[in-house]
Amino acid sequence: MKKIYIDAHTHTVASGHAYSSLQEMARAAADKGIQYLGITEHGPSIEGTCPLLYFKNMFVVPREMYGVNILMGCEVNILDTFGNLDLNDEYLDRLDIGIAGIHIKCWKGGTKEENTQGVINVIRNPKIHIISHPGDGTADLDFEQLVLAAKESHTLLEINNHSLAPERKKKIAWDNNREILRLCKQYETPLILGSDAHISFQIADYSRITPLLEETEFPDELIMNYWPNRFFSYLSLPKNKQV
Q1: CA-to-CA dists, residue 64 to 68, 111, 214, angstroms
Q2: Share in percent of the chain as helix, strand, coil (round to 5)
Q3: What does the pLDDT look like over 115-131, one tens digit per residue?
């Protein structure tokens, strides 16, 4: 695996079920040579997460700590097959980076076609930059349609290390993520690896993903964690987000 410069999807104690502070996460990222760290707490539909006021007050957080550039964001919840989210534009506009994903406790799904259309609607939302763990099996999805929509909209699908943990008991996640990798390679669609770290020791840990990358012979050029300039350019993030 090449040098990792970006870990865009992590959680702190503010999410309610994670175990490190923001400063501890930043320090660990610095120790690992990470240049850009996304702090992306769960949206308000997840039990125990931070209140809406948290996202309104994020301007107080320094965007550089210990030499690491901090991207303050949110892992917003996709609520239904229409692509409704649990943060409105007032809050989405405050984020340095927007991630959106399906979580079973706040998801009202439908058929495979309906689920897929809901996620595509989110992919096409310019305020959302990354779709978290689409392959974890929470919703039945047409991955080819998602890959093509992601390429068209310059949104990144995530291969999520955390969802591959045996303790998560997401048995279908391995095959689903392999299929996403295969399709992204076929259509030359960039993606991002997500640690989904819930404690500082998990930052930039992609150990469960590595065998899938090797099996699919996935090209480094399509993994945005390696290429900060491409990452910001591809997502059309404003230059003032690049600290």
Answers
A1: 5, 44, 34
A2: 40, 20, 40
A3: 999 999 999 999 999 99
Q: Which one, of 134, 129, 137, lies nearest residue 101 by Cα?
A: 134
pLDDT one-digit tens code per residue, 50-60 = 999 999 999 99
At 133, is the secondary structure helix, strand, or coil?
coil
Q: What are phi and psi of 121, to 5 degrees?
A: -60, -40
Length of the chain: 243
Confidence of residue 170 (pLDDT cuts 50, 70, 90): confident
Give the other-Cβ count within 10 Å of 25's Cβ.
28
Answer whether 187's CB lies under 8 Å from 223's CB: no
Distance of CA 126 to the CA centre of its chain: 15
Mean pLDDT of the chain: 96
User: With contact defined as beta carbons under 8 Å apart, do 201 and 28 qualify?
Assistant: yes
> Mind listing the pLDDT tens digit for each residue in 58-78?
999 999 999 999 999 999 999
Token pair belonging to 80 = 């239904």
SS3 assignment for 189-225: CCEEEECCECCHHHCCCCCCCHHHHHHHCCCHHHEHH
pTM for this structure?
0.96
pLDDT of residue 239: 53
Show the tokens assigned to 87.
Answer: 């943060």
Q: Which of 138, 99, 100 has the alpha carbon at shortest distance from 119?
A: 100
